[in-house]
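[STRUCTURE TOKENS]
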Amino acid sequence: MKVKDVMTKKVQSVEVPGNREEALELLRKLRVSALPVLKRGTQELVGMVRLRDFFENPDEDQLGMLVNRDVPTVQEDDSLRDAARKMLETSSRRLPVVRDGNLVGIITVRDIVHRAIAEMDIKDPASKYMQRPLATVWEGTPLQVAVEIMGLAEVRALPVINEEGELVGIIDDSDIIAVSEIETESRIEQMKGRSEGDSWTWDSEDRIYITKKRLKPPKKPVKEVMSRDLITIGRRTSVSECAKLMKEKNIEQVPVVTAEGNFIGMVRDEDLLQAL
């Protein structure tokens, strides 16, 4: 199979020059964690912007300063195996598909898992590729702290445990986007200083009014936002069966449990790429 067989052709994107507000609005609307960035008025690919970039740079308003420009890309006729390998090597969930530098589509982990692996008959146990050890979070953890843990651990989802250490849910970046508000914050900065005693000059000083917008998680604990409807697999569930389950339930990760119900690891959709 080739990239063109599974890629998404209609791609939502943002343009530069542009500002963070437009990109944040689209990220929230689509409930995705990254978007392609194009040169305004063209299909020329500039790079990608991630949700994480907004959290890490709350004072930057210009979209062009937030763009990751050195992004891996693929072409339509590249093999699916090569695309999967590039995703794993670069830790990318999505690869822009380009032709002569112009964006013609995008291929995501989900595209490969749902449209390819789920249709194959890969009998390897999915648990062979599970993440262990992995970062977890207590259900009483403030949401903002969970965001920071995701960033430090470089993950998009966290298993949630209670005080007894039992698995009670999962929280991912789409859950956080869904409940977060776009907050407007303004401040005034002086363009030049004044000497002591020159209070009479205040009204004539040059000042600049700075307004910025940022995505702000509510002051809630993780347990109020997490997904409680846990879909799990066992040690022997095959890769293709796991992929079908992810497609059917529209999820990106599943906990792996023993026959006794003990939580032992997590299989993410990108982990299944290794089976190719």
Summary: Residues 190-211 have pLDDT under 50 and may be disordered. The first helix runs from residue 3 to 6. The helical segments are 3-6, 20-30, 51-56, 80-90, 109-115, 143-153, 173-179, 239-249. The chain has three domains: 3-115, 126-178+219-275, 181-216.
